[in-house]
Amino acid sequence: MSNQKVIKNLKTFSTAAERFEGSHVLCPGCAHSIIVREVLNATNDNLVVSAATGCLEVCTAIYPHTSWDCSWIHIGFENASTAIAGAETMNKVLRKKGRIDPSTPEPKFVTFGGDGATYDIGFQWISGCFERGHDFMYICLDNEVYANTGGQRSSSTPIGSSTTTAPAGSTSYGEKRNKKDMLAIMAAHGSPYVAQVAPNKWKDMIKKIQTGFDTKGPVFINAMSACTTEWKFQPHETIEASDLAVDSLVFPLYEIIDGTELNITYRPKNIVPVRDYLAFQPRFKHLFKPENEYIIEEWQKRVDAKWEYLQKREEARV
Amino acid sequence: MNSKQMELNKVEVWDGNTCNAQAFRQAAVDVLAAYPITPSTNTVETYASFHANGYVDGEIIMVESEHAAMSGCVGAGAAGGRVATATSSQGCALMVEVLYQCSGMRIPVVLCLVNRALAAPLNVNGDHSDMYLTRDAGWIQLDSFNAQEAYDLTLCSFKIGEHKDVRLPVISNQDGFLTSHTAQTVRPLSDKVAYDFVGDYLQVNAMLDFTNPVTHGVQTEHDWHFEHKAKQHAALMGSLFVVEEVFEEFEKISGRKYNLVESYKVEDADVVIVCLGTTYETAMIAVDAIREETGIKAGVLAPRLFRPFPLTQLASKLQNVKAIACMDRSAPGGTVGTLYNEVAGALFNTQARPILKNLVYGLGGRDIIVNELKEIFVSLNEEAKNGKLNGKIQTLHGVRGPELSFYEH
Ligand SMILES: Cc1ncc(C[n+]2csc(CCOP(=O)(O)OP(=O)(O)O)c2C)c(N)n1
Ligand code: SF4
Fold it and tell me: Where are the compositionally biased (Low complexity) regions (chain A) (predicted)?
């Protein structure tokens, strides 16, 4: 079992001793930093963290500074998962060989990657690590765009979003395809625990992160990470944007245990229309033109269908 | 060590891949992450059989690609232990991104590179295209000419790379098939002598040392990047002296002497072949034969250390030579061969400015035989006598069809 914190309320949680210091250059309002703080503050365990190339990495470890008061490594864009797999394996060997005292508590291994690093270029490496069953937690900071290189589409970019490589124009409504269902894919890898989290629902998130730390084997967490710069809302509106995402069920919060037991962990009291979520973010502004409105309707239908599906699966336990 | 020791005979019959695997086992590698590719596959298979039979108490991670293999090695090395892998050709090409990241982070991984051609066309046989591909990746590179040397130099690689003043990854090169798959007599060290020579792993900035958290693989800007790279280069250049030291120590325990530059009958030679890998031994036979048959004063020279390149040591050995054929076993890609460039660079600022020509040969595993090398010595000798090149600077030696030569002199 891990050495977890007992977190009673937001005040004590937010004033916990930091292992992710404030001295970073992420944009004001960036959800990446909120999520990382919540993850690192959820446990007192020793941590070994790897980060994929992306906003988080380039903004938190610029020589001669670092924001990380824990073991940390960045290699490349695609291979953060395998870096942790190497470290995790070395930990096993050094304990077996007695070069680490086996009575010292086991550290926890965590990887952070953006959606580009996770859904696209790093997918093969993550798949390999999950198939081999390494004991670590992979956390995707899902801002639905390649933010660090200036806002290109990824396979997490939702339909209708205007990005620099899938821009809306006089003959295009922007991104043409639906977001990849990464959680289903990772559950299908035989992961003992996968979950979606959002930083605004911090209690739900902490619970899932702590469950992840307590789970043996590869754990996948998809964290919705609102990006003020590419979603184009004001820095103080991050939590509002996140609330709209989970309350509209565009980003439902649920978990899948051992690939079968599905639990919905947050049910909005008042479900917000998808329109409201989209209207909040100028990246979808062009969808409100009459010729594009059908995309919003289709989006709503898909969200409804997914919600129904999740509820049925929860009930059926399959 | 909890693993079983292996009783080895004074003389074993091993191929080059077995030599790699035995060196990994005796160095008690902690983590090996690997992916199969001909002709280096057998290194990993042999090592896996040692593991399966209790001779290894480290871990093997059989990853899904070579890029992941090297990524796993870097992560494991940064965690604080001894790591190694093996690859060839396309696998090496897929690793290249991570090779730079590994050396930039100063993680002393040992990579046994079993040299093979790069596609297209797809070819599984030996040439030096993959060795050249990794030329500027910041790794120390040793080159062996037979199986015994592959074993010896792989053991030395751990000691060199992990040295506290070096902390750099090392590639131990050998020729695909010619060395990797050819059973040869090898005199191994005992497990104890070998391990004592390599020594315990020197832990530096380990991620598993939680009293000193460290940040590996930072981002730099123009304000610091140059200084990082300068220090890395200084360590790489300085490793040359560590290599010499390690070679001396190795001679004491094995009786086998290695030099930064290996040469045969170069001292009084008029004409010399400079090459890499197994061609060195073939050329030694040609040197003896041509000297006996014609009296031509021939010699052969090969850098033992490909990176850092032993420029001055090589130049000093070639001061009295009149004509040199530099042999490059890699498709040259629009210029003279890499080895030719190195040798030209070494000699340009010295008194000796011998005739220097570039022969591209043996691509994709094509044989080079003693008679061909003798012919090269004969024509070099004519050029030495006439004081000028007979033909262009670069020739694709032995290619079928009309002669292909390039670069006027
Ligand atoms: C092999 C490789 N290809 C491309 C890049 C350029 N690159 C760096 S970060 C990045 C985008 C990162 O996007 P994402 O993973 O979504 O993370 P975010 O920055 O949005 O947090 C890209 C394309 C790279 N570093 N390496
Ligand atoms: S661009 Fe987006 S993800 Fe990147 S630092 Fe800014 S807000 Fe965060």
Answer: 154-172
Cβ–ligand 1 contact at A284 (below 6 Å): no
Binary contact (A94, B81; C-beta < 8 A): yes
The CATH number given to whatever domain includes residue B162 is 3.40.50.970
B78 and B225 co-located in one domain: yes
ipTM above 0.90, yes or no: yes
Same domain? For B309 and B168 the reply is no
**B41 is in which domain, residue-wise?**
12-254
Which chain B residues in 105-164 lie under 8 Å from chain A, judged by CB atoms?
A: 105
Whether residue B239 is found in the same domain as residue B348 = no
CATH of the domain at B281: 3.40.50.920
Q: Give the largest Cα separation in chain A, rounded.
A: 69
What is the spatial distance between Cα A94 and Cα A101, in angstroms, rounded to a whole number? 9
Within this chain, do residues B226 and B299 fall inside the same structural domain, yes or no? no
Q: Measured between alpha carbons, how far is A262 from A265 in angstroms, rounded to an integer?
A: 9
3-class DSSP state for residue A296? helix
> Mutual orientation of helices B41-52 and B16-26 as an angle, nearest 10°?
40
Residue A17 pLDDT > 80: no
| Chain A residues in contact with B83 (beta carbon < 8 A) | 86, 90
Q: Give percent above pLDDT 90 in chain B.
A: 99
> Does residue B345 sit in the same domain as residue B238?
no
Q: Among A9-13, A93-97, A174-178, B183-187, where is mean pLDDT lowest?
A: A9-13
pLDDT, position B321 = 98
CATH topology of domain A10-316: Rossmann fold (3.40.50)
Is A82's CB within 8 Å of B207's CB? no
Apex B321 CA angle, B320 and B324, nearest 5: 155
Q: Is A115 in the pocket of ligand 1 (CB under 6 A)?
A: yes
pLDDT tens-place string over residues A254-276: 999 999 999 999 999 999 999 99
Contact state of B219 with A75 under an 8 Å Cβ cutoff: no
* B366 within domain boundaries: yes
Share of chain B above pLDDT 70, in %: 100
